[in-house]
């Protein structure tokens, strides 16, 4: 068996250690069944998320990227996820410009106690990726024309207007 | 590097849906892996020995364990590899239980996923570097937030052990909810008689600093070295001068102030000491009720005060305390029954809450301990208790059991009978929950000896008829509608999280559940720790609890603090940021994003400015790492190289 040669779709997840990784654990402990597409990379905080990771993952052939952290205002490091929210929203809008389908990237917030919510997030995003099929790679997704719609309909964690804060990055 | 991979079967937890043998076999193909095996229970003593044996036999330089969540056993295995002579950070875990075997049934897909996670861990481990903790001194003072019975117990235990304790209480007096109770179940002990001496102890211990009528404003720092800003709210009375004589209360002309201590049942003066046993026994002016603050005239209390303690120009004051650990004991609040419009609480004066009835029973309460109903002061002949008001009810977003109501209803029914032998008590209940020592016997006593009528069913409606109340409900055992006429209806309101609990959690950086109760580190095995090192929980702030459980948790939290303070220094987590000076361009972006102020400037001999990380202050969030334009600042153990290698392993 070689894991590299199978046709299975693959989602890379970046989860903060304190909330969402715990939430995924909680979902496991509760035996909430989830599609097997996701592979989770543990990071200390979504504030650690370099936008490069998202682009690199999609460019290297991941079929989807999921980032999840603590709910805004509940960051273990106080403000890490505020920075993440602004950066990841920018990444989402940037993806069409480099020919990557923004629907393949999703960011959200799941706390350590929200096992059920985690199951829902994984199931829904897996369904989106299954619908989109394998990632054709850099510049292959015909998305440039319909990208704005894709952004507004998908919306990531939503509230784009709340991403604007007086504090500059 | 020589890497060993250990795939855990976890009994059948993993092995039933993952082919662990195949995963181990496949791992041998990965770069640097020289040894791989699967094992029944890797975390067990023999399992750990197996790892240590392999480290020696195969001269391993790094170990990957594919098992449960690292949040579960990372520390266990780090200790194990350390014992075998490896650096504890030359270890990685692949989570193939919570994230694989428990969430999918497809053995083929699960096995592939497990292989990938192992490969990811191997690729990360290949880039790991040995890390070494440094030691920082511990400030052996402890902050206790909340002066209810849990906080008092924690403060006293710490003080008895010789620690300096700072106790912060939001209200004017410590004592919390227990100070409002008349008696306690199941022993019918007088609440203030058993709590009072403890409160006095707090006042008398020289190593307890009590900040009453104060709130925690901000918390910074980390385990061993917290800095806490406390706002001492203005009382308009100089507490150093006030002797608690109570003369001002007698003379104050604003006598119609709502008495919050008596749960709004009576009135008090605008300047007040909430109850006779208050600690500290000092007066405070309630600004919105005071005639002077409303009209600019009066000043009766200032004229009468024998020690000239009244100062109308007093302002909130901020004090800063340095502590090494924090115990959170902020307690709970009681459900406001307003959402149950059909019960008429607030509309009918004779429909009251459990805590109001507790004040009516109390000798220091609004009626001096005579059981009367609020509307006309008549002695009630029939009292109906309604259980589960704001408990076990999804429709008001309180699906949990409050745990204490069944017991306090039984107690109040017994006490009502003791006060007025002719009174008949009825209890509408869903289930009787009495799982405590002598608790069920106590409920049986209420039913059998005191003749309290228990009716199993929900109440649908409460409405007035003449000067009495009619309680309409179902008797599900009888299968019939019942109607009870009563003079007084007591709603057993449930427990909810303390107001302001979420705001405080954000200051302390601890997590809370959807109802605002604080989350413990582990629901079974770490019930007093939080996920923030150095912050501990005691009492009902963590979830509904009765007095013995709160006291036990207060002591437990104190023992955790004592264990922490038994050492003089604490090892810091070496997973912190570090700067590669040759790459740093001195832009200062890391300084501006760091939430902890852990980065400062450093000037090199050539005059250039570089960022420098204060390793003991850095918490390891990695925000600077993501921000740094030339990637000169790297979070150790989570470097860009390591994360990209994990990514490569998954995608390439």
UniProtKB/TrEMBL annotation, chain A:
Listed InterPro entries: MvhD/FlpD
- Disordered, as annotated region: 138-169
Give all residue intervals belonging to the F420-non-reducing hydrogenase iron-sulfur subunit D domain. 11-133
Keywords assigned by UniProt? Iron, Iron-sulfur, Metal-binding, Oxidoreductase
* UniProt biased composition (Basic and acidic residues): 159-169
The superkingdom listed in its UniProt entry is Bacteria
Q: What is this protein called?
A: Coenzyme F420-reducing hydrogenase, delta subunit
Query: What organism does the record attribute this protein to?
Result: Desulfacinum hydrothermale DSM 13146
Automatic annotation (TrEMBL), chain B:
Q: Which PANTHER family match?
A: COB--COM HETERODISULFIDE REDUCTASE IRON-SULFUR SUBUNIT A, FERREDOXIN:COB-COM HETERODISULFIDE REDUCTASE SUBUNIT A
Q: Which UniProt keywords apply?
A: 4Fe-4S, FAD, Flavoprotein, Iron, Iron-sulfur, Metal-binding, Oxidoreductase
GO-annotated molecular function: 4 iron, 4 sulfur cluster binding; metal ion binding; oxidoreductase activity
- Family membership: Belongs to the HdrA family.
> What protein name is recorded for this chain?
Heterodisulfide reductase subunit A
The answer to whether the entry has keyword Membrane is no
Please name the InterPro entries in this protein's record.
4Fe4S_Fe-S-bd, 4Fe4S_Fe_S_CS, FAD/NAD-bd_sf, HdrA-like
Q: Which cofactor does it need?
A: FAD
- The record places domain 4Fe-4S ferredoxin-type at 233-264, 281-315, 575-604, 609-638
Keyword flag Flavoprotein: yes
- PROSITE patterns the UniProt entry points to: 4FE4S_FER_1, 4FE4S_FER_2
